[in-house]
Amino acid sequence: MPLIGVDLGGTKIEGIVLDGLAPRQRVRVATERERGYDHILDRIAEVVAALRPHAPDAAVIGIGTPGSISARDGRLKNSNTTCLNGRPLHADLEARLGVPVRLENDANCFALAEARHGAGRGHEVVFGVILGTGVGGGIVVRSQLWSGPQHIAGEWGHHAIDPAGPECYCGRRGCVETMLSGPALEARHRAAGGAAVSAAEIAARAASGDAIAIAVVEDYVDRFGRALANVVSILDPAVVVLGGGLSNLGILYGPGREAVARYVFNDELRTPIVPNALGDSAGVIGAALLSTAP
Ligand SMILES: [Zn+2]
């Protein structure tokens, strides 16, 4: 049966009808978040109304969003679309759309999509990682999302690994996100005397022998290894799937993997660390899959 999924982003809202493995119908609208909370609800309702004729029997609608969703009352926290924070988004969406909604953060949607339809297929436990503007993670066990009773499972981005590290918006210091996000890598490159360039450009400069970029990338890879090894030592996933803009850095799959092996609580690392298979569509596909059993 065709499913409806919606990915609520800071700049665009994307909806799909998912039929089997393939997104069949796509709708994209601008979020226009500067127009406020009620406007965003209206925009989501427009997307769902446009998709509805292609999936008339979808009884539940899956929606992915940045930020974390309170297990207690469904309110949103830590979203970069700040007008959503503190609002009962889940209840308001159900009231506006007139159907049950499953709401999950975008890293969980990514992990679910990759586990069922992407690079994690066939693996019993999948740890899905987002390395982008922020750092997130999601855990899928036997094709089902494990979000935990407090709805924080997989949130390795806020493991504090250096008490003297940079301040994080969550109120602590030295969180993984403050070291492994794209903006964090770019900031370290500037602090080391490098130019204000993108993460991809820093990696390219390191590959072509630039001394500053090499030092910054080696440091990044080492922290990646330390942070991910902590997760692997607890969860021991069958596979780790990387997503987000920085998952395009090839260095993570060679030296990055070796760094994880250095820090993991084992004399070898057998865990595959692989790039995602679904690209930018993983989030919205995962949102659609929220409404189904595997
Ligand atoms: Zn933090």
Topology:
Layout: E1 3-8, E2 12-19, E3 22-30, H1 37-51, E4 61-65, E5 68-69, E6 76-77, H2 89-97, E7 101-105, H3 106-117, E8 125-131, E9 135-141, E10 144-146, H4 177-180, H5 182-191, H6 199-207, H7 211-235, E11 239-243, H8 255-263, E12 273-275, H9 282-289
Parallel strand pairs: 1-4, 4-7, 8-11, 11-12
Antiparallel strand pairs: 1-2, 2-3, 5-6, 8-9, 9-10
Bound molecules: zinc ion.
Structure commentary:
- The chain is α/β, with parallel strands linked by helices and 294 residues long.
- The chain is 34% helix and 21% strand.
- It is built from 9 helices and 12 strands.
- The strands form 3 sheets. The protein has a 5-stranded mixed sheet with strand order 3-2-1-4-7, sandwiched between helices. A 5-stranded mixed sheet has the order 10-9-8-11-12, covered by helices on one side. Strands 5-6 form a two-stranded antiparallel sheet.
- α3 crosses α9 and α6 crosses α7.
- The longest helix has 25 residues.
- The radius of gyration is 19 Å and the shape is globular.
- The mean pLDDT is 94.
- The site of zinc ion has 6 residues, from loops.
Q: Write out the strand line-up for the largest beta sheet, numbering strands in chain order.
A: 3-2-1-4-7
Q: What pattern of helices and strands is seen along the backbone?
A: EEEHEEEHEHEEEHHHHEHEH
Beta-strand percentage? 15-25%
Estimate the helix proportion, in percent: 25-40%
Distance between the termini: 13 Å
Largest sheet: 5 strands, mixed
Bulk shape: globular
Low-confidence stretches: none
Structure annotation, total helices: 9
Average pLDDT, all residues: 94
Structural class: alpha/beta
Q: Mind telling me the C-alpha Rg?
A: 19 Å
> What is the number of beta strands?
12
The ligands bound in this entry are: zinc ion
